[in-house]
Amino acid sequence: MNVPQTPPIRVLLVDDDPLVRAGLSFMLGGLPDLEIVGEAADGSEAAALVERHSPDVVLMDIRMPSMDGLAATEALRRRERPPEVIVLTTFHADEQVLRALRAGAAGFVLKDTPPAEIVEAVRRVAAGAPVLSPTVTRQLIERVTDRGPDRGAEARERLARLNDRERQVAIAVGRGRSNAEIAAALFMSVATVKAHVSRILTKLDLNNRVQIALLAHDAGRLDAES
Q1: Whole-model pTM?
Q2: Confidence band, pLDDT 50/70/90 cuts, at residue 226
Q3: Which of 13, 92, 212, 215 has its CA 20 to 30 A from that of 134?
Q4: 7 three-state secondary structure
Q5: Exposed, middle or buried by CB within 10 Å (0-12, 13-18, 19+), for 130?
């Protein structure tokens, strides 16, 4: 009996440094479950390549000469069927990284990350899992703060759309708690926590847990709630 094979994860590389693209292509291209479907030297080329090749994951540099990775990520995430985006950066806590996460990037990896970890990040994102751990998300929020009055008011209005239990879960996600930790603190099962997170994403039209955490931060709820 033939077992159907899972199609490889389709990856698009977007980076203005040809050496970086060559290294990523060499690293990822030789694996049986990954396929490099295209390469771009600037964010302005990304949309056409996504349209042509339908990648599952885009590895996106932030700093590029014509259209940077932030603008390219925002454009890709507005598509009807957007690819997941992993931001490539040289900085742990960078304003551009935070803005890319707000735009819907699934996470970021440093350019000097060990190859095996970059491969694992691509696989996790393609499977619908977050790249950033709750702890890294919390550290990023604490180190890069750009909450303004307008952003805070909008975030509080959006959180108000949630019921009390969903709001508690959202705040816990913002504090970097895992599903198991949230379940223990709120006296519910892990499955119930996952269901609440799914409803929060749907109600607030968010992409991932990182955006939930950022919204809770913007609303000023991480310090206000115990």
Answers
A1: 0.79
A2: very low
A3: 13
A4: coil
A5: middle
